[in-house]
Amino acid sequence: MKVLMLGWEFPPYISGGLGTACYGLTRGLDSAGVKVDFVLPVSLPQDFNSHVTFSTTSNPSNGAGVQEKDESVLRGITMHVLAAFLQPYAGPEQFREVVEMMKQMQPVGGLPVGDILTGEAVGYGGDLMGQVQRYSSLTVELASDTTFDVIHAHDWMTYPAGLAVAAHSGRPLVVHLHSTEFDRSGENIDQQIYDIERVGMHGSDRVICVSYLTRGIALTRYDVNPEKVEVVYNAVDLPAGKTVGTDPIARDEKIVLFLGRITMQKGPEYFLQAAKKVLEKFEKVRFVIAGSGDLISEAVSLAAELGIGKHVAFTGFLRGDDVGRIFRMADLYVMPSVSEPFGIAPLEAISHNVPVIISNQSGVSEVLTHVLKVDFWDTDDMANKIVAVLRHPPLQRVLRQQGQIELRKLSWKDSAKKCKKIYKELISARKQKVGKRQK
Asked: Which of 77, 78, 51, 73 is nearest to 62 (CA)?
């Protein structure tokens, strides 16, 4: 069985949880004996070590596959990088800034990166939608020279490519819903993105959602046939070769961590409002906000307005070893998301033995029991629970110990097995249709 998998990020080029999910799922599929051709757009400048090596569209059939630096080779996986650029969380001005930065990169697929991003020489626009069209066109071209049994497209930017390849090849299409426009934008949705999501879900043979929360949105907001919508939970890789103790790191000042994009969806303002209330009861605490996003300036200003600036540290976007380092420093992780389809970060926190508070408005709340849960808007309850964890070591110990046990029930191998089962059903159904036509 071979899958043509379409995504827009993969470690180490990560701006959200999608890259982590794609990496974990791909590893799980490899262990299940499923071959994967993973198709990526050109990523941010390659100025740091990668988990994988890539082939490019200049010679896609000769890809060496994916090689992990510290683990065994993923033998069934081949990566392809297309001459398109997808940056979902960048506004027009940010997109232009990235364009200028990436003009210094080496050519991709024989095409200067500056031409890719500005739309010169190829005929597609230099904005995000133009890049989505370019990715779609190049994916169809790549697929024409590739054999595969099923198409698996992750999130809205790859849906047009998935639909085009399905129409061209006749192969079944699975679309994976990691986040919806309602999660990202609330009621102020971008109609063009919503339409792409809707067409992708309706035009697919199966929709995979990361939680029942997301499945409910697919049914109610996008009117998708419930019979073709399935839930496959995300998972987390436990830190390799490390045993986690049960004693917190000793320090005078406690650290409460927010790690994620600084956007409306993630609720940074509720985190800061709760922080102010905590500091009224517990002074020796530092609130660390790790991440970047369109609300970073507003978050810094809000911390100052609340008079808690000296107790709040903004680290900017973290990657690689820095993520593990900040988790190991933390006494508590808080995810106050307004609308979170799943939420891998709490699993990562637990894997580093950090107690966790999550919002009820998250998909991960469906699978975690030994965490504290709050409604994102209830900053009084959030503050009280933060104080309770910081003040009571027995509560910390129970959350850490039981969280470790609970975490081991979530496995990327199990998620991959569910996907493989879906693939088999779709491939079998297609063979039956082809057989009926031939009779």
From this structure: 78
Based on the domain organization, do 375 and 228 belong to the same domain? no
More confident residue, 129 or 28: 28
Is the pTM of the predicted complex or chain greater than 0.85? Answer: no
Pairing of strands 150-154, 55-56: unpaired
Question: 3-class DSSP state for residue 358?
Answer: strand
418 lies in a domain? Answer: yes
Write out pLDDT tens, residues 417-430. 999 999 999 999 98
Residues 318, 304: Cα–Cα separation, whole Å: 23
What is the C-alpha separation between 269 and 296, in angstroms, rounded? Answer: 10
- Alpha-carbon distance of 55 to 39, in angstroms, equals 10
**DSSP H/E element including 102:** helix 92-102
Same domain, yes or no: 162 and 137:
yes
One domain for residues 401 and 432:
no
423: containing domain = 2-235+412-438
In a shared domain, residues 286 and 197: no
User: Any alpha helices (H) in 254-407, and if so which ranges?
Assistant: 268-279, 296-305, 321-329, 345-351, 379-391, 393-407
For residues 372 and 399, give the distance between their C-alpha atoms in angstroms, rounded to a whole number.
8
Tell me the CATH number at 27. 3.40.50.2000
Supply angle C-alpha 100, 103, 106, rounded to 5: 155
